[in-house]
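Collaborator request, handled under Task 6.
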Amino acid sequence: MSAFLRSHRRRAGLSLDALAERTGLTKSYISKIERGLSTPSIAVALRIAHVLDADVSQLFSENPDRSALLAIGRSSERAEPAPSGPANYQPLATQIVGKAMQPFVVTPSTEPGAGHVDHHGDEFVFVHKGAVEVSIPGNVITLNEGDTLYFDADTPHQLRSISAQRAEVLIVVHDRDAADVPAAPRSRA
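Structure tokens returned to the collaborator:
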């Protein structure tokens, strides 16, 4: 995401300070993302995309394609996450621009995060491997391999791996704000 964020920010004519102010993030954090030293959460990626008036997939892909009808992702093409450390977010279908659903393979951290996050839209979680704990104010939900959760993502939430081996989850975010913007026409040729 690093090089793509920098190019979109510059194309929008925004300095690091201006993007930080509009997103509510720190200049230091945005700089770390641009230099590849930090990976943003889904909520942060969505917030940055909205400010830059870009599809979130444009921030992750070298070649987003407005006419693409499908995107195939091979497991062999995804980077293997570290066995410990911060959460790892791997966006899927980044080649397609203008989609209302944003899919990610997430390897949550085993440590509780700095706080709950929220963002517009709906969120669907499917636990592919291991077990996770989803914390929503006043409620802690344990999800095991094969379990799912669907919720309004405006609800503050936090996710962490609680299994012996780090969990892997599929998260699909339906971004209501993006869904209100008409998608570019797709070629059927």
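The cover message to the collaborator said: "The two ends are 30 Å apart (CA to CA). The chain is about 20% helix and 25% strand. Please let us know whether this matches your experimental observations."
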